[in-house]
Task: structure prediction
Amino acid sequence: MPPGFVTDSLVETVILVLGAPRSGTTWLAKILDSHPDVLYRHEPDEVIPAPAELEDAALRRLIAAWIAERGLRSAGKRPFFPKSWQSAPARLLRTGLAHAVTAGERVLGASRLAAAALPDLARDRPARAVIKSVRWSEGAPLLTRSLPASRTFFILRHPCGQVASVMRGTGQRRFELREAGTDMPFHEGRAIAQAAAFGLDATEFQALPDAAKYAWDWVAFNAPVLDAPAEQPNLRVVVYEDLCARPIPMAREIMAFAGLSWTSQTERFVSRSTTHEGRAGYYGVFRNALAAAESWRGSMTQADQAAVRSVVQRSGLGRFWPDF
Result:
């Protein structure tokens, strides 16, 4: 996207989708991306990390940089949708380019094409930008205060469901380790610090079953948003299980909160992405939503469920689900 496209308006009215990995962030983000006026960026903070300390002006520059990021990871997340700011031939060309760059990565290696940018091929300025991150929960309170015209969605999945999914992905070697010397795909130091706030020292943490360690990371990720003391009128918490149970009504509420109209394109996507039959890809957005929301109940051992519950009950963050 040419620099002139990243306007103050796009930054000030940005829509963020935040949540822990395996919480439904991509699905929620793609519901928003299905609106024809939206420009979508998928996890641009993997390329341009947020600094530990941010102030107002730096925050605006960071959001602008994320919107401008056009690497394949950020700008090439499928499915693609027809856009009001892009002609049909341009969309077809861009889709072909995305497939070509993806194929090139497989042949040449991702590092050889790391600098490759996927053009947006926009004929007009997009009205809104949507950014999705599974890293940046601690930035949500600052963003909602600094950019009152922005909208932030924070999606929560039942801790047993999220932990079961991440543990399955770890077993399938789908994640890179966050910290050298650990065997967990999360920030172990952050989880240890969170447990310490509830009276567990590092030795006691290491003696926990893996499911409990993952649960402490769930608490550590979600606490900065859920424990924020002030009311944040431009932030909405979305419970994944509620979205799975009532996809169309919930999606309508989500679009209204974002300031986006309801379109037939969004309705079709929500319907297709919740009624998929057959095998669903680990990172896919097309699945049987109700089955996905409850799958952990049959796949997770009772011991692991109990370990997760014991952690979350101590934190007080289980209030969104009736079984806590």
